[in-house]
Amino acid sequence: MTTSTRGAARTPAVLVLEDGRIFRGRAYGAVGETFGEAVFSTGMTGYQETLTDPSYHRQVVVMTAPHVGNTGVNDDDPESQRIWVAGYVVRDPARVPSNWRSRRPLDEELTAQGVVGISGIDTRALTRHLRERGAMRVGIFSGATVPDDATLLARVQEVPSMKGADLAAEVATSEPYVVPAVGEKKFTVAAVDLGIKGMTAQRMAQRGIEVHVLPANATVDDVYAVEPDGVFFSNGPGDPATADHPVSVMRAVLERGTPLFGICFGNQILGRALGFGTYKLKYGHRGINQPVQDRTTGKVEITSHNHGFAVDAPLDQVSDTPFGRAEVSHVCLNDNVVEGLRLLDRPAFSVQYHPEAAAGPHDAAYLFDRFVSLMEGQRA
């Protein structure tokens, strides 16, 4: 529940974690209350892409960069039609944005979309707390009638956990749509939307791919009705252990041998389709500065991440699966988390991070070319 006021910057606000830790600051954006899972993002920039990433649905994002809002908000960088974060936590919001593309201040956009936030707190201390204790449920409260701390804590502890949450259908498109190829059309791809970012389809379109974006509940018949040269499974929010329908669709695609590419949630779904388990990370990977090694080339990339779950697969051996041999193709150099999978006997691979680079470095853009190569090989 939110209400907006022009005096939000002077309105007291309080952030309450489920373990009882409390931070007090000032309202930022809409005034009211919000709940979600507290997570932190280490990106120094790209806050607009972060806010509009559907994978952040039901999460309260803590920005580790101290200054946020410096470049305002433009109409070119959103990754979807709305802000998806459940709440926003910053230390020092910009008083006046300065950028030639800026159309309005960030706090005005948060207010207009009803996003409750808090500013003026020690985000370093909050980040250290989440690193030590793990991502946890949180509430942000502001306004004239905020209850006592004990009441707020009890309300936070009633919030559902992210573990077991089935959220993809809540953020995915309800109707299919097409992103046309840029220039000559070379391939057709059926993209299963589990929370797809706008730039992902654009990266494929730039390579001559006509992208048919399908709802999360699309069936195998829906996928093959577009006569695809390849199938793509997108990023998205929630616990991959709940994604039984996308897993069944992916297994049908693998059985047919159609070239397949998955990103983030799509990587976890491929893991499940191959028979691997998934698990919740302590605090996840979120930001645009995460080091990953492509084990097929030895190259180290700086990559963009947003995931709180990971695939449980053997790092140093080839695994036998119902669809042939599979191996871990990418690994995070910070903690050895699986960051990519590939099949050795079928044209299918996935990565846990975001090669569309919105926001983030472009080190991993080659993965879209790799997908094109799989489709070219299949056609040949």
Strand tally:
21
Nearest-integer average pLDDT: 95
What percent strand?
Answer: 25-35%
Could you estimate the helical fraction of the residues in percent? 10-25%
Query: What is the distance, rounded to the nearest whole angstrom, between the alpha carbons of the first and last residues?
Result: 55 Å
Form type: globular
- Using only C-alpha atoms, the radius of gyration works out to 21 Å
Secondary-structure class: alpha/beta
Output the number of helix runs.
10
In the predicted model, the low-confidence regions spanning at least 5 consecutive residues are: 1-6
* Biggest sheet record: 11 strands, mixed
Verbal overview:
- The protein has helices at 47-51, 106-112, 123-133, 149-156, 168-171, 198-205, 220-225, 244-256, 265-273, 366-379, and strands at residues 2-3, 12-17, 22-29, 31-41, 59-63, 67-68, 87-89, 92-93, 116-119, 136-142, 177-179, 187-192, 209-214, 230-233, 260-263, 277-294, 299-312, 319-321, 324-332, 338-343, 348-351.
- The chain is built from ten helices and 21 strands.
- Mean pLDDT is 95; it is low at 1-6.
- By secondary structure, it is of the alpha/beta class.
- Helix 6 links the parallel strand 12 (187-192) and strand 13 (209-214).
Characteristics of this structure?
380 residues
